[in-house]
Amino acid sequence: MSKSHKQYVCPHENCNSVFKRRTRYESHLRVHSGERPFICPFDECDKSYTRAFHLNRHMKIHESSFRCSVDGCFEILKSKATLKKHIDLIHKKKRHKIFKCSYCDKEFNKHNWLQKHEYIHTGMPPFLCPADNCERRFLVPSKLKKHMKIHEGYTCTKPDCDKTFLKWSQLVKHNVISHPKVHKCASCNKEFSRSSNLKEHELVHNEEREVFDCPVPNCSRFYFHKRNLKNHIKSYHEARPFVCQEEHCHKAFKTEADLSKHALRHDPNRPSRKEQT
Predict the structure, then answer these.
(1) Residue 108: half-sphere exposure toward Cβ, Cα within 13 Å
(2) Percent of the chain scored above 90 by pLDDT?
(3) DSSP string spanning 126-140?
(4) C-alpha distances in angstroms, 78 versus 37, 59, 119, 234?
């Protein structure tokens, strides 16, 4: 006869999670409650977790040579000062100030840890935005600080411009439109919005610049860029295959009839306009 195991079913609506171990079940419930009791002890680190395993994995980020030497303690601190503080508070019990939860018997060494913890009881994030008519609250100070940028805005630093924008992308767009960077040619003072365009233009003033001549007979056109020469050949000569063969004439035509009509201009026996009238 097989031995049955107790199962722990999540009581929350629309959640079908089932667990065989009570520890995993309790850890899962914190996902719904928002409780994150496993808090990183390092200063200026606001990370907290629902499971001790996740906290221990996170702690590897802060690994350093300052490991607690007390038997049975595996704490790793980021500096000599925090190591000393850890030993005084945890092992020597030199607690200068204790922050006690108003709703349960838990105690904390830091006030912001207490604030985070009390969120479990109140359901209200502890850090309130100080801006007028803003009631947004946050669980950690870092998120409040990021939120404050919405009220402070991003101010343009260009001379004689004090415009402020709610988003960084709006400020960037403003600078592109209202304060475009100008790149001026030193030879002719022509201005460009991009340095690449200026660099390309400056080649015009270079006497030793490479020139691309049109290879079609009787065509005197030339270009400073090979792509422009290709466009010229494609749009003019390839689209107009009938080229006048007279010397010093490079005209081309789409049809043979147009070329024949043009050739009359080169006929020395062609009657003048006065003779035609």
Answers:
(1) 19
(2) 0
(3) SEE--STT---EESS
(4) 21, 10, 28, 69
pLDDT tens digits for range 12-27: 777 777 888 888 888 7
If one counts every other C-beta atom within 10 angstroms of the C-beta of residue 113, the result is 16
Chain segment 151-207, per-residue pLDDT in tens: 777 788 888 888 888 777 888 888 888 888 888 888 888 888 778 888 878 777 777
- Residue 183 has φ and ψ, to the nearest 5°, of -115, 115
> CB neighbours (10 Å) of residue 107?
13
pLDDT at 275: 56
């500096």: which residue's tokens? 79
Q: What is the pLDDT of residues 78-127, one digit of tens each?
A: 677 888 888 887 877 765 677 888 888 888 877 878 888 888 888 888 88
**Tokens describing residue 100:** 């006690």
CA of 48: how far to CAs of 57, 106, 162, 247, 264, in Å? 12, 16, 40, 88, 93
Closest CA to 78 of 91, 94, 67, 70: 67
> Largest alpha-carbon pair distance within the chain?
127
Residue corresponding to tokens 């907290």: 48
Residue 101, SS3 per DSSP: coil
